[in-house]
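User: I'll paste a sequence; please echo it back and then give the predicted structure.

Assistant: Echoing your sequence first, then the prediction.
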Amino acid sequence: MLATFKNIAFLALLMGSATVEAASGSGRTTRYWDCCKGSCGWSGKASVSQPIQSCDKNDNPLSNMGAKNGCESGGQAYMCSNQSPWAVNDNLAYGFAAVKLQGGSESSWCCACYKLTFTSGPVSGKQMIVQATNTGGDLGNNHFDLAMPGGGVGIFNGCTNEWGAPPNGWGQQYGGISSRSECDNFPEKLKAGCYWRFDWFKGADNPDVTFEEVTCPRAITDKSKCIRSGQNPT
């Protein structure tokens, strides 16, 4: 009987470890800013206080969580400008990302926060806490597509409708702009997040990361308005 209890305890330990592993590991990053309503902005994606906040064409918060994506014909809902990244100090930043994790789904990652530790490039050793606001069908596993103005619109482009950006967004469709000075011509509300890429982020190009799920900082959820059930932002 004792052996049986030991076996049960061992299996429970393994299952607990597997649960932790599902929310931590090694991954990769890319960058984007497509101005579209994030997929975690729809009701029913996860057990949360409310979906990720979306904004109208004038960057005003929308109360209608069912508003059509601005990246679709006739849509009214866009990414809010305050979902830009910002520096907390020289070694820590906060922001938002489209996420896809191996073994997970939107129900497990929408509005969850992850601490990323960069392991390559000029930001190696720096850390960033991001909240999952979106999911990309073109993302690989353990992939964080960091939201930063001027990072490239990728597959979808809502920036032309929302901000009057060029037809393929600012800069290249994938990767975006290539110099800090290009941020000078951005809409005022997007400039700080654009400069962040070349200042705190040092112009890093898709650095690798290790990641772990963490409790969301209140500074992030105050912007997104989305808190996962059972979490108390710090």
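Residues 1-22 have pLDDT under 50 and may be disordered. The radius of gyration is 18 Å.
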